[in-house]
Amino acid sequence: MNASSLAPVTENTPGGKSGRSRRPRKGNSVLAQGEPSIWGTGGALVVAITMIVGLLVLVLIQGAVTFWPMDLVRIRTVDGKVYLGEVTREETYRPEAEVFTSLPPRERDRAREAVQQAAGVARRRLLRTGNYDLTGFHHQWVSDFQIAEESKPEWGLVVERLTWGNFYGTPTAFLLDGKEVASDPDDIWAQFVNHHDAVAERFSRSVDLNRHGIGALSRKQNAALLARKQAEISYGKSSSEYAVADKQFAEVESACKEEDARIKSEINTLNKENDRFQLRLVTADGQEKILPLADIVRAYPANRLSFGDEVGIYFSRWAEFLTQRPRQANTEGGVLPAIWGTVAMTLLMSLVVVPFGVLAALYLREYAKSGPIISVVRIAINNLAGVPSIVFGVFGMGFFCYLVGKFIDGGPQHIQVAPMPPAWWWLAMLAVVLVGAAAFLVGLIGARDRAKESRFGRYLGRFAVALWLLSLAPVVYVVVHTPYFSGFYEANLPSPTFGTGGVLWASLTLALLTVPVVIVATEESLAAVPNSMREGSYACGASKWQTIRRIVLPRALPGIMTGMILAMARGAGEVAPIMLVGAVKLAPELPVDGVFPYLHPSRSFMHLGFHIYDLGFQSLNSEAARPMVYTTTLLLIGIVALLNVMAVWLRSRLRRRYLVSQF
Amino acid sequence: MTVSHPASAALESRPTPLLPMPQQPANPRLLDHPGSEESRLEKIARGQSAPAHVHAEIAQTDPVLRITSFSLWYGKKQALFDVSLCIPRGKVTALIGPSGCGKSTLLRSVNRLNDLIDTVRVRGEMQLNDDPIYRPSVDVIELRKRMGMVFQKPNPFPMSIYENVVYPLRIDGERDRRALHEVCERSLRGAALWDEVKDRLHESGLALSGGQQQRLCIARAIAGDPEVLLLDEPCSALDPIATSKIEDLLQELKGNYSVLIVTHNMQQAARTSDFTAFMYLGHVIEYGPTGTMFTNPHLRETNDYITGRFG
Ligand SMILES: Nc1ncnc2c1ncn2[C@@H]1O[C@H](COP(=O)(O)OP(=O)(O)OP(=O)(O)O)[C@@H](O)[C@H]1O
Ligand SMILES: [Mg+2]
Predict the structure, then answer these.
(1) Which of A259, A361, A607, B32 has the highest CB neighbour count under 10 A?
(2) How many A from CA of B130 to the centre of ligand 2?
(3) Which of B71, B73, B74 has the most ligand 1 atoms within 8 A of CB, as the residue to mutate?
């Protein structure tokens, strides 16, 4: 196959017979050997793949096991404490000498000896003991040498609560209206299973009523209040408009009050019904605790579960994770708002970045004549991809939120710009319009083929561009200094609407961040369109734009899709910039929902990447958050992969349509 | 540079003498004096100019395309030198000459495709039916619509066979499906492709074989009903059967269309064309009726080239 096997053949045929002497060939150059290069290139690939696969496998395993229900262990330590909890982690460590001194004297020597026998290494396990409301801690390390007795209590119950985190204990009674109706664990469990679904159903109904019913009322009230305030700003407090708005507000308020009372009483009935059911448990160290059923999200006797039960709990936890809102400072519950926010932001970003990037690339590749300026532009674009993403965040915050956003909110005054006097403003406006019209006309004349032939015509084109640029700055100036605009959300001030982070600003910031990716990918795919196709189109009498639209773009579409995929993957995973322009720890409302106008570009949003950061580094209970970090990472990777797969599928469909023959 | 050894280039492209030449060259006047005067080709190769030898018959024709002392530069390099040709109306005119002599360049100048190359500069004038081609006032797009062009390499568009053929009509905004379909069928039949593709008109044009692609391009070129058809070695990727179909097509088109065809195949030029121009290094050497050019050329250089005895 390779040179080494060919070498002897060369030597054996000196070519004397044919009378034509052949130049003897040296077959022993190292570079002529195939193996080293295979080893080199293959090795590099293996190293790269190992790292990537390692990371993925770690995330996959850690993320996948999080929701699996563990057994409950009950441990009595030598110093008489009792713990009941799930083993979340296990490790070996070298105990310091002081560790032993805290043990009772009788056990001290035994423990020290045991550790010494194991070469000074001891095993310890992290128990998730929960019961934070009673004990003040969530987790407890237990070393093997501390253990006096270990068992798996049959009726150890894991209770996931709405507040205070998990509870671990054994049930002692089921209370109905405060009266004990069951005291045997089997009966208690039967009662719990019997009633819990109905209670949970009632609870979610009351939450829904609260969120949607009361939410809609307060929105209505807010709108009326804003209308009144707007009337006050526009016409003054003594005007008739204000009176009308005031009357309207009073009507709305009283109507809302009635409705509010009705909904509240409905919620009350639901809650009262729920309050009848309670569960009494006793902790491992003998404290009693009564839990209302409504507070319990999920409970299960961990050591009595069959494999089927475990699978059921596993998937019900995943379902909760994917479809519910977070609770317990994000460490429990679901991440639906974060999924929603990530997807909405990424799609909004693609919507902005793809057209812009493609148009820019089209100009660079199809229209611009290559020259120093274009080279500089190209280098600048490529370098834009190397700017730290936090810089984009800072820019987005300063420009979009605090300049554009505030202008939208409150007009010129709100960004500390004094509006021009109307007369001057109209004059400036006129000048700008004139310059713009001149630029348009000159451009129109210069763009005609006839004009392009002459040097004068070419200068005309440049002159038009210069005029355009010249009118651009005054346009911005005139718009910013308008005396006739005082913001769309003036009534809402000083609380900002667009003047703070939001999903729109985050999308725009990320669009800025990813536009080089799209431009570079599009340019490459445009360059790959053979020139002969363009010439064929021109020869048919097509104009430049027709050629681009009908020949170049369809042919380049798969490449453009690749650019979009890359941009989406980059944008969806980016955390640093969006921290500054709208991602929040907990968003009360989704950026896209069923309330008109469905898309709320000014709302701040939750984001999976930011959620990971928040869980991992900002969480008070970081041990509890740790598994969620992995699960959320897994989810984010999954979503990015899903978006990619969709785009790749689309691309391959397009490719098939423009199948290239091999002849 | 391909033209540094014109003789060898010409030898490579010499047609294999499978068929006998239509008639053996028999102009004793030329053969009698070998090397008696300095060859025109040597003069041209040294950078001097030599006037083209144009037969008297050309002057009697009615030209559809008139090229008047046309020169073209790619940057600093001159590719065409003072080319003057009159392409007769309703006839097939063949351009022959060794590789790199500027045949394609001349063809691309006729529909101003060379405008697309930034470095190209031109001097001289061309006229299509007395309308100037190289005037600033000319609408290049309208001009190109009056011509059809087939390129040396097949260049179908990334769309269906059907859309490929009706492309010239599409860009004119034609929407009538019946008219489109009619043009599609007529053009494909004309290009001898209809029977092969009639069942898969809506498959990608890029999925055809090389020869089929070239016939698709021919169909596209005649779909726009052009005044002049510019063919740049249209048969170089075709098998003998398709080639003869294309040659038949040329015979049919003759009369209605004026055809300017570049070919390296001497038999093809002799069979299909009415007039032949021989080019060398950007110069027209001899231009006359095909019969005379192949049987009784006035210049020895032409004779050498068409018989494959170059230089
Ligand atoms: N885009 C270009 N830029 C610079 N030089 C070019 C370009 N296209 C062609 N040339 C040069 O112009 C000369 C004529 O080329 P042309 O393609 O017209 O030759 P041709 O007669 O068509 O050859 P062939 O028979 O091989 O197709 C050649 O020397 C070639 O190198
Ligand atoms: Mg050519």
Answers:
(1) A607
(2) 27
(3) B74
Task: Specify the pairing of strand B275-280 against strand B92-96.
Answer: parallel
Distance B287 CA to ligand 2 centre (A): 19
Tens-digit pLDDT profile for residues B61-102: 899 999 999 999 999 999 999 999 999 999 999 999 999 999
Residue count (chain B): 311
Distance from B253 to chain A by nearest Cα, in Å? 18
- Cis amide leading into A14 (omega within 30): no
Give CA separation, A305 vs A150, A545, B106, B128, in Å: 19, 68, 87, 92
- Lowest-confidence segment of A66-75, A178-187, B3-12 by average pLDDT: B3-12
Residue B72's alpha-carbon distances to A20, A430, A501, B112, B125, in angstroms, are 47, 49, 61, 12, 11
- Which pair of tokens denotes residue B247? 């040659």
Per the prediction, chain A carries an average pLDDT of: 85
CB A129 within 8 A of CB A83: yes
- On the question of pLDDT at A28 being above 70, the answer is no
Q: Looking at this predicted complex, what is its ipTM?
A: 0.85
**Tokens of residue A625, six digits:** 């958050």
Phi, psi angles (nearest 5°) of residue B66: -120, 120
Q: What local confidence, expressed as pLDDT, does residue A621 receive?
A: 76
Paired with A133 in beta bridges are none
Nearest to A659 among B116, B149, B207 (CB): B207
Q: Amino acid letter at A346? A: T
CB within 8 Å: B204 and A658: yes
- Give the separation between CA A551 and CA B163, rounded to whole angstroms: 11
Residue with CA closest to ligand 1 atom 7? B74
Using the 8-state DSSP alphabet, how is residue A296 labeled? E
User: Does residue B117 line the site of ligand 1, with CB under 6 A?
Assistant: yes
> Distance between CA atoms of A498 and A383, rounded to whole angstroms?
30
pLDDT band at A659 (very low <50, low <70, confident <90, very high): low
Question: What percentage of residues in chain A have a pLDDT greater than 70?
Answer: 92
Relative to the alpha carbon of B100, which ligand is closest? 1
Does ligand 1 lie within 6 Å of residue B3's CB atom?
yes
In the structure encoding, which two tokens stand for residue A657, read together?
A: 């349509």
Grade residue A396 by pLDDT with cuts at 50, 70 and 90: very high
For A640, other C-beta atoms within 10 Å of its C-beta total 21
Instruction: Identify the residue with better confidence: B237 or B154.
Output: B154
Instruction: Name the residue facing A535 among B151, B159, B224 (closest C-beta).
Output: B151
Q: Which of B103, B119, B230, B279 to mutate for ligand 1's pocket (most ligand atoms within 8 Å of CB)?
A: B103
Which residue out of B118, B167, B187 would a mutagenesis test of the A interface target, given it has the greatest number of A Cβ atoms within 10 Å?
A: B167
Find the helix or strand (DSSP H, E) in which A49 lies.
helix A35-65
Please give the DSSP secondary-structure letter assigned to residue A330.
T
Asked if A541 reaches chain B (Cβ–Cβ under 8 Å), the answer is yes
Sheet holding A122-128, edge to edge: A139-143, A122-128, A82-93, A72-77, A147-151
Least CA distance to A552: which residue of chain B? Answer: B158
Residue A420 DSSP code: P
User: B204-217 pLDDT, tens per residue?
Assistant: 888 888 888 988 99
Cα–Cα distance between A226 and A233 in angstroms, integer? 10
Contacts of A551 in chain B (CB under 8 A): 157-158
- What is the phi/psi pair of residue B189, to 5°? -65, -45
Minimum-distance ligand 1 atom for the alpha carbon of B13 = 25
Q: Which residue has the tokens 């009706």?
A: B166
By Cβ distance, the residue of A449, A453, A658 closest to B158 is: A658
Q: For residue A354, give Cα distances in angstroms to A209, A248, A348, A591.
A: 41, 46, 10, 21
Instruction: Say whether residue B148 is in contact with chain A using an 8 A CB cutoff.
Output: yes
* DSSP-derived 3-state class of residue A355: helix
